[in-house]
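Re: [ENG-882] Designed sequences occasionally contain unexpected residues at chain ends

Forwarding the minimal case from QA. Structure tokens:
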């Protein structure tokens, strides 16, 4: 049974596939940074890519790190969660994951505040959503008081200055 929430815009996914393949012609690994406000659908997009892959790139070739946690297939049937327990002052927050991502040409890094990662990324994907829908999702997920609190706290988080990137795309959550 498919979840309609994870039917993303086919044009955007095709564009992401083409960008990824063009970069893989020049490099052995592509780093995709998925950004957006809390409740916008970043983690859902990361899960989608981990389960479905990117275009004709198989899921086994895609590693997803979502807010410092990576889920990997273990023995082909189990999921093992790897956490980054290193302090945020670490020069590269991906170092604990390197042994697990060596064989994967696609690295998807999901974060609402990816300041350290942005300058090292090949493709930036910004997930956006209507504010009313985002608030509704946060309230459903966290309850009335906590949902509103998370909504208010995250309103300016993703307004970070993006570095110049020739590979930037925006996917509106309403597109799925």
């Amino acid at each position: 049974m498919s979840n309609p929430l994870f039917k993303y815009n086919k044009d955007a996914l095709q564009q992401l596939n083409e960008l990824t393949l063009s970069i893989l012609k020049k490099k052995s690994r592509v780093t995709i940074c998925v950004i957006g406000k809390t409740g916008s659908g970043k983690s859902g997009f990361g899960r989608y890519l981990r389960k479905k892959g990117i275009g004709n790139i198989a899921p086994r070739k895609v590693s997803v790190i979502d807010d410092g946690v990576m889920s990997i297939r273990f023995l082909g049937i189990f999921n093992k969660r790897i956490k980054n327990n290193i302090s945020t002052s670490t020069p590269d927050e991906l170092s604990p994951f390197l042994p697990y991502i060596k064989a994967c040409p696609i690295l998807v890094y999901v974060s609402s505040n990816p300041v350290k990662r942005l300058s090292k990324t090949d493709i930036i994907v910004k997930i956006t959503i209507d504010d009313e829908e985002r608030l509704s999702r946060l309230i459903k997920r966290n309850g009335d008081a906590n949902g509103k609190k998370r909504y208010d706290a995250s309103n300016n988080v993703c307004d970070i200055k993006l570095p110049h990137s020739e590979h930037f795309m925006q996917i509106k959550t309403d597109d799925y």
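QA comment: On inspection the terminal residues look reasonable. Residues 11-17+25-127+156-175 form a domain with the Rossmann fold fold (CATH 3.40.50). Proposing we downgrade this to a documentation issue.
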